[in-house]
Amino acid sequence: MANKFSALMLASMISLNAAAVVDKNFDYHVDRFADIEVLRYEVPEFDRLSLNQKKMIYYLSQAAQAGRDIIWDQNGRYNLQIRKLLENIYTNFKGDKNSKDFKAFEKYLKQVWFGNGIHHHYSSDKFIPEFSEAFFAEQVKALPDSLLPLNEGETREAMVATLTPVIFDPTVMPKRVNQDGTKDVVATSANNLYGEGVTQAEVEEYYSKLKDPNDPRPISYGLNAKVVKENGKIKEEHYHLNGLYGPAIAKIIYWLDMAKSVAENDAQKTYITKLIDYYITGDLRLFDEYSILWAEDTASDVDFVNGFIESYGDPLGMTGSWESYVNFKNNKSTSRTETISNNAQWFEDNSPVDPRFRKPTVKGVSAKVINAAMLAGDAFPSTAIGINLPNSNWIRAEHGSKSVTIENITEAYDMASHGNGFNKEFVIDEATGKLLDDYLYITDMLHTDLHECLGHASGQILPGVDPDALKENGSTLEEARADLFALYYLADPKLQELGILDNPEAYKAEYYKYMLNGLMTQLNRIEPGKDVEEAHMRNRQLIAAWILDKGKKDKVVELVKKKGKTFVKINDYKKMRSLIAQLLKEIQRIKSEGDYKAGVELINKYAVKVDPKLHKEVLQRFSTLDIPPYRGFINPVYVPVYDDKGNITDVKLTYGEGYADQMLRLSRDFTTLGF
Ligand code: ZN
């Protein structure tokens, strides 16, 4: 049996390597600025798709890009105006393009493009321009009236007076999402998900009145709404065809309708129709109906997400940021995740959490490996390597969820990282380095599979507990729960039995990387003096710092010094696994019981604060490597080929576009909301 399994494993490794050989000449690197590297990804096997599937991908890609302006406006109410102004300055600039001011201006514009607005996509801090206010004023002055993005009735002077502090003053709109629970997180967040003057207390009161704690199937309150204050009264304004973002939504609907005409099967047609109905009405019950149909369609090869989905952009975790993701199935690798999800019940039954908090029956967590074909909205340019949707807890419990690992994106990250010197600088010894070389790619993929297919889908909330009870810490603790579930099972012999990992020691590669990242290397993404803010980063530090602390007595994991440099040293991988089990048990309890206070204590003790000395050392060591802390992607371009009757006969895929070119083209072709 073992032989058969390792042969299977070997086959999957070979297929990965084979892909890598084919990709040898593919140029992954596109642009580099500030703390960002922009990559491109390859879409393998696009050519093997049928004409209808190619058309479907083309139409869905158009629907994806049609929503671009929505995320910009959700991220901040001046973003669209600022984008247009900056782009017009950039494309009409007549001065010296090598001047310091112009270079700084170009860098700022590239950052703004990457952030879908004036705040960093990850830290959510406002970008600080390195060009002068005088340069800015001069450039605006040089633009003719016809190139000024003015609001109705707005003068040139008024626009400059409004936008100058928004761009330059670090105290104005400093943070897109403020998660500091000691402040009013609604009033102090610069995003555009709440109207002016709305407070956290008002929003919480508004929704507590709407929510029925005994409703077993609640809609996702606030998911497609902006909460505003009108004449002193709090109310929701919804995103739909005749409401907020109507013009963008009209375009999305048009392209979804085109996609429907070439859908792969009736089930897919039905859920696209439902999605369109939801976009027309804004009715969240229709969104739930759509989500159920979508989650249950596992037969279609081409698939997509298009809507208000993830709520990380909302400090209260309710409003969904608009995003779209078009993809198709990678058949070769999907058998791996199918094996995992076919055994979901075994994993649930054997997890270390209190049996009361386990799901008695885990609904088929469908899982597949996909190739991304188009990223958009909140999923662009920065993007995830795995997704698990829908987010609604009761839908997941009753109908299951769809979980995907995005192979071509993961592969692009991996390929673009080779030879960057990271292991040499941060990994403690050669043996560990070899372990990472041999097993990190596959264990990373498996970690994502387990996190998405099983982790998020596992466990249950006790009856009567508000799913939002953990408030501002909900996202962090949910990510921690999914990560711990994945880490725990990576080391389980079950994976050898199932034939998805051939070496019982392989998990050590992921454990080492996880501790190294959570304790040290992810600090590269934090500016000196700042705390850890983003939910996934908090989750990783929480887990790593907790294990370090709780394992101190037995020296399970240590931070050791070698030639003045700090290294992570793992002395006992088995004990580390039992600590993972212990923390998983506790975090599941916190989630199941809605124990807000215990959540706050864990987060405050482990997830937020940074050791300034270690932080400085990490930044210094990274600076010698020139590894960008953040990476994202531009998309390939899909070009339909028409016959003389106007029918599409083929869709061609091209990769050559540059970063600025792509951003300017998107602004030219997909501007839907003003300017
Ligand atoms: Zn997750």
Average pLDDT, to the nearest integer?
92
> Low-confidence spans: pLDDT under 50, at least 5 residues?
1-22
- In percent, how much strand structure appears in the residues? 5-15%
Number of strands: 14
User: Share of helix among residues?
Assistant: 40-55%
Structural class, by secondary structure, is alpha+beta
Q: What is the molecular shape?
A: globular
* Ligands, deduplicated: zinc ion
The largest sheet has its strands arranged as 5-6-7-9-8
Distance between the termini: 64 Å
Number of helices: 25
How large, in whole angstroms, is the Cα Rg?
25 Å
Major sheet: 5 strands, mixed
Question: What is shown here, in short?
Answer:
It is built from 25 helices and 14 strands. The chain has 675 residues and is of the alpha+beta class.
